[in-house]
Design brief:
Distance between the termini: 27 Å
Shape: globular
Structural class: alpha+beta
Largest sheet: 4 strands, mixed
Order of helices and strands: EEEHHHHHEEHEEEHEHHHHEEEHHH
CATH superfamily: Cytochrome-c3 Hydrogenase, chain B
Number of domains: 1
CATH architecture: Orthogonal Bundle
Number of helices: 14
CATH class: Mainly Alpha
Number of strands: 12
Strand content: 15-25%
Length: 427
């Protein structure tokens, strides 16, 4: 029996590896292993005031701290019956756009693209692909700038609070964001065209359509919602999230695993583009249909492309969103106080990597129960399924060392956030 492991896997967040197991050169098994220690954030927040909790949980991850903060705030607001102003709601959408741009462009250009162009990292790409690298820098920088303005920091900004914002951006700052979005629209289009032109190998294409799951809101493609849309034609309320995720422990991972109806499923950009296609901005929808929606359903590698499509959606929508925010009166810039001090709230927010669930039970303003389900936790079974499928098809035609490189590309396509996913002690 032969075992090849690529620990630690490069160009992902956190520590994980792929273990390819063969027997006489033939496929036997693949395991996606997570070796990180527990984070224990669900325990950290117990007996903490809800305002303190909103500062603790975003520290789960620097890359998607906005999503964690917004999910946390929304769960608290549901529990304590807080209905924010329209301006707060729209500014949160804008902040969320900033995180999507920062995270997606970092992933597709710096982490994924080198595999497709034959480079070990983005740095040596500069000489031959300088235009693409500089485009990546400018787009990624724009996402950071939005978070800097709206959240007051690029990472772990404390400006979004329960009921509103500590400080609202100035007109000049919002117009800066609008003007930059208009200038970068062409770069966003070129990025979609670049990732639409890449070759995503067929061995990772399943015969049966994958299950894809994400939030849905009738207001539009806004990265949150109280309805969970499933690609097999089902819709569930967010309160049913435990029956959708079905978290369990496996022996080869310190992160839990999820399944739905006995099958693995995927969350993230492909889930959102597939399920909410008609809510995309005009250009983003045009490109999504151009490159083949059915391909996204069966091959996770296309998440590199669907992330680029989502970024185009964000940049195309930002100018109109800014106009709506500026049209609202200054009276909308207020913090709404809770109506009650105890309650139970469940939220679902789309982090870059997929649906993020937060559940809090609050008594006298202090959290007494908490549960979080992380996107990467939901994707791990799906990663493993497509890695197994690909390895079976590639072996023994290719050497094991070559096969594992293709499996890395599959795992990277999910843009895993390993540190977010680990919430238990390995016993």
């Amino acid at each position: 029996m032969g075992i090849i492991s690529n620990f630690p896997m490069s160009r992902i967040e956190g520590h994980a590896s792929i273990k390819l197991i063969t027997e006489n050169g033939k496929f036997k098994d693949v395991k996606v292993e997570v070796e990180e220690g527990p984070r224990l954030f669900e325990r950290m927040v117990i007996n903490k005031h809800y305002n303190e909790v909103t500062r603790i949980t975003p520290r789960i991850c620097a890359i998607c701290s906005v999503s964690h903060r917004l999910a946390c705030i929304k769960a608290v607001e549901k529990a304590l019956k807080v209905k924010v102003t329209e301006k707060t709601k729209l500014l949160r959408y804008l902040l969320h756009y900033g995180e999507m741009l920062e995270s997606h462009y970092l992933h597709i250009y710096y982490l994924a693209l080198p595999d497709y162009l034959g480079f070990p990292s983005v740095v040596p790409m500069v000489e031959k692909f300088r235009e693409e690298v500089m485009r990546a820098v400018n787009l990624h920088k724009f996402g950071n700038r939005i978070m800097e303005i709206v959240s007051l920091r690029r990472i772990h900004g404390d400006n979004p609070i329960v009921g509103g914002f500590g400080k609202y951006p100035s007109k000049e700052e919002l117009l800066e964001i609008k003007e930059t979005a208009e200038k970068l629209l062409d770069d966003a289009i070129k990025t979609v065209e670049l990732f639409g032109s890449l070759s995503y190998f067929d061995e990772a294409t399943s015969e049966e359509e994958n299950i894809w799951m994400c939030t849905y809101d009738p207001e539009g493609y806004i990265f949150e919602g109280d309805i969970i849309k499933i690609s097999i034609g089902e819709e569930k309320r967010v309160e049913e999230y435990r029956s959708l995720t079905n978290e369990r422990v496996v022996s080869h991972s310190t992160a839990k695993r999820c399944s739905y109806k006995g099958r693995s499923f995927g969350v993230g950009s492909s889930a959102r583009v597939i399920n909410n296609l008609n809510q995309l901005s005009p250009k983003a929808k045009e490109f999504a249909e151009k490159y083949g929606i059915n391909k996204y359903k069966r091959n996770p590698l296309y998440m590199n492309l669907t992330q680029a499509i989502e970024c185009l959606h964000c940049i195309e929508n930002i100018p109109g969103l800014i106009d709506k925010i500026l049209d609202l009166p200054s009276e909308e810039e207020r913090v709404v106080e809770p109506e009650v001090s105890s309650g139970h709230g469940i939220s679902a927010v789309e982090a870059p990597r997929g649906t993020l669930y937060y559940e809090y039970k609050i008594e006298n303003n202090f959290v007494v129960e908490a549960n979080l389900v992380i996107p990467t936790t939901q994707n791990l079974d799906n990663m493993e399924y497509y890695c197994k499928l690909t390895a079976q098809r590639m072996l023994p035609k290719k050497k094991e060392e070559e096969v594992i490189k293709y499996l890395e590309m599959i795992v990277r396509a999910y843009d895993p956030c390993i540190s977010c996913s680990v919430h238990l002690v390995k016993l």
